[in-house]
Amino acid sequence: MDLFAQSELIDKHAPLAVRMRPESLEEYVGQEHILGEGKLLYKAIKQDILRSIILYGPPGVGKTTLAYVISQTTRGVFITVSATTTGVAELKKLMEESRQRRAYHGQRTILFVDEIQRLNKGQQDVLLPAVEQGDLILIGATTENPFFEVNAALLSRSQIYRLHPLSSENLRTVARRALESERGLADFNCSITPDALDHLVQVANGDARVLLNVLEFAALTAPQDADGKRLIELSTAEEAAQMQRVRYDKSGDNHYDVISAFIKSLRGSDPDAALYWYARMVYADEDPRFIVRRLLVHAAEDVGMADPNALLMAHAAAFALEWLGMPEARIPIAQAIIYIATAPKSNSVVTAVDAALGFVERTEAEPVPVHLRDTHYSGAAKLGHGKGYKYPHDYPHHYVGQDYLPENVRDQKFYRPSDQGREKVIKERLLYFENLKRK
Known about the structure:
Strand order of the largest sheet: 2-3-4-1-5
Largest sheet: 5 strands, parallel
Strand content: 5-15%
Helix content: 40-55%
Number of strands: 7
Shape: elongated
């Protein structure tokens, strides 16, 4: 199947995003970090010496468009397939044809695989020999992290290029071209006010396809004056867009990036940033239980003993979610977020438990000291269990110095309290007990 209709065959009724697809690198907008003049990928395309590449990025940033530009530039045979509709048998046939084309005609084959992450392991394995032997130049496009979704052997034989969401200026350039181009909206004799364009750029959120789709709808519905001219005003743009599109894929890479930003904002004591990332997740219909689970973890991990109430706040948010549901639970969850973000921070709990686990893994497990052994069963006393144990409540301050560790662990310190928040008091108390024990 051919994903790219030739430009002269593109129907005037095709979507604006299709009609405005660039046909050369000079027309391509954005991705200057890899396609700026003088960049290696730019040179490889211009000189037609491209090697296998994987284009990775969110929708609407130019992956398929770049493949189309390459198809218009190369002297090789350019073939396009979709991972969702192509089977192993078809791929094997394509591989054999590319081998013969190279062997008998000295002609190379470039294969563009859209949504390459949807190829299963068997399909990806079929491509590997041809890519490895140079019979085939592979261009894969994916919205998912290729390091998770694509065969490691294919990755090692391909250059990975990450495409970023288009900048606001990139999107304005795309919109202006569409309004002025004969392939675009020039026949509509349409213009747009600055505030309307700003709104469409904001709604597009880095996605040129979204921008062009909304722009076309706005142009079609904009009122005409007596001279047949159309003007897209803010009210028309708002009605055409309806609502802002938030880039967020609950099963993809962006999901992990947003939750990472949320966690790091909590850890960094920035309540405004934490609330913003929380709002992004809520707006995108993220599972609120997922968010609350992260609050529980980070109340213990990042606040810890500096303010033990942080964990209680996170637990209260989880309880509120189960009893109230959304949207009411958004308030106690936000309260927990603000509390955790503004609480004093200490990761001593993480350090302590990991140190203890690591020590246990590395050292011999000596028997429990006799004075600490259980005495609540028949015959325990005859075995001497509990002999010499000192009951702390019988002593001043409800403390008495005695050893609670086996001989080979006696000098170990796992928990080292910080000077933050409540933990400063805990540190002073432990130091006081240590001095009593020495006496």
